[in-house]
Amino acid sequence: MSERALAERFNEVVLPHLGDALALARWLTGNAADAEDVVQDACIKAHAGIAGYAGGNARAWLLTIVRNTSYTWMARNRPRGMLAVGDLGDLDDMAAAHGTSLPDEDGPEASLIAKADTAALEAAIAALPPPFRETLVLRDINGLSYREISAMLAVPIGTVMSRLARARGLLASELGRAS
Amino acid sequence: MTHDDGLPNDPEGIRLMIHALVDGELDAAAALAVERRIAADPKLAAEHARIVALQGAVSRLPRPDVSDAFRARIAAIGTPTTEQQAPAEATEPPRGAPSALPGLIAGAGGGQRREAGTRPSQARPSPRARRFVSFDWRAMAASIMISAVLASGATQWVMQSGVDDGFAAAVASGHRRSLLAASPIDIVSSDRHTVKPWLDARIGVSPPAPDLAQDGFALIGGRVEVISGRPVPALVYRHREHLITLVAEPQQGGKTTKPDDLSSGGFSMVHWSDGAFSYWAISDMERPELDDFVARFRKAAV
Fold first, then answer.
1. Count of domains in chain B?
2. How many domains does chain A have?
3. ipTM for the complex?
4. Could you give a GO molecular-function term held by this entry (chain A) (predicted)?
5. What is the pLDDT of residues A56-102, one digit of tens each?
6. Nearest CB to A7 within list B57, B58, B151
7. Within chain A, how many helices (H) and strands (E) appear?
């Protein structure tokens, strides 16, 4: 493929999804300025690998690169305070510590959650254990399917489902408590 | 209570099915079965309402803004004259597009962003539908245009003007890149007592950095350029709306040369040496104005 064709492909595959890429990087790094650095790094990698992009969901392809770049970037820039990817053995403990049980009232809680203000919701998402946060962001902010998330994280779909349910459970109880 | 609908019977299993229902991941038969369960059990109905409310709230969160400058920076990655390809630049054949001013590039980027920028929020309400929207064709058309404009690189400019020096080409593309970047400078300061120590600390060398604000050329900061694999200091001056990049390459031989005009294609470039540094000044100003800057800089730097 000519250099020109590769450049055009890069533009059509990458540029429409910059907003999604920034959103993911922001939630993974926890900071908007770092997100731009990470996405720029990721786009350089995407550009280098564009010849190998085989079609399919361009957004999922780019977001996979963004995710990997985020972790590489954090390992380099923030060696401390980062949960090793794949070190999920104590996830159950982490979830238990947060307490997933919900208050038993029915109707009002959903409307409280729906009205939760942006800051409270963002803080609650930021406080999620990283693997839960990552899955929630990929699904509810980036809109990827279970199958795409499963491929990206290299975990079974069942794991995606349970992490998502845990993440939402933690958020709901956090918001329920706050309000 | 047991059911004969093929769904899991443990509370955890049915909870996962409700999430899958909300996420649109169930086929019609399974979705129907889950809905029946929800209708029959107020607890499950509350759980369902909670998940729907939560998902709605999360998907309404504001998303980071893709700034024009950032989009242009990413678009520039896709073009052949960007940083990663700098080593190949000098030997690369010229590309067949007309050269353009940076102002034009920024304009095109801005137009594209306004169109493309509206897409994610409009598409927000249905994550399911978004999954199948791979490309925004308007954004794509605009970005192809940008890439065509950007593809006219410093390489072609240098080829045309007969300058065969890879260093000049790298200085030129560094200047062009800086115009596309979020900020053309790494250290923002009009105070040379800040800029010089910063450059010293970074790369162990700093050129004279007179502030010529009284002459109409304000020192606004500095940055480090990597040219031919070596970090070299660059100062950034502003004259009205124009930026001037002054790259100062430390000299080995200590030759002194008079200002030499390398201008072409809308950019003005002047090169000279003072024995300690070899200077390259580049700007989109008119040549006489750049000459004026060079004369004042040389006088002040002595």
1. 2
2. 2
3. 0.82
4. sigma factor activity
5. 788 888 999 999 999 888 888 776 555 444 444 455 555 554 444 44
6. B151
7. 10, 0
A22: domain range? Answer: 3-77
- Cβ contact B59–A141 (<8 Å): yes
CA dihedral A5, A8, A14, A19 (to 10 degrees): 180
A59–B contact, CB cutoff 8 A: yes
Alpha carbons B6 and B25: distance in angstroms, whole number: 16
Instruction: Choose the final residue of a domain: A15, A46, A77.
Output: A77
Least confident piece of the model among B23-32, B137-146, B269-278: B137-146
**What's the confidence (pLDDT) of residue B176?**
74
Does residue B198 fall inside a structural domain?
A: yes
Distance from CA of B232 to the nearest CA of A (A): 22
List pLDDT tens digits, range B159-211.
444 444 677 777 887 777 777 665 667 776 777 777 887 777 777 778 888 88
Contact B287, B261 (CB under 8 A): yes
Contact between A176 and A112 (Cβ < 8 Å): yes
- Contact assignment for A113 to B54 by CB distance below 8 Å: yes
What would the mean pLDDT of A47-51 be, rounded to a whole number?
A: 83
Residue that is written with structure tokens 């200085």 in the block: B171
The alpha-carbon gap from A99 to the nearest alpha carbon of chain B, in Å, equals 16
B62: left (phi over 0), alpha (psi -120 to 50) or beta: beta
DSSP string, A28-83: HHT-HHHHHHHHHHHHHHHHHTGGG--SS-HHHHHHHHHHHHHHHHHHHH--TT-P
Identify the domain containing residue B183 by its residue range.
159-301
Residue A44 CB coordination number (10 Å): 17
pTM, whole model, 2 decimals? Answer: 0.51
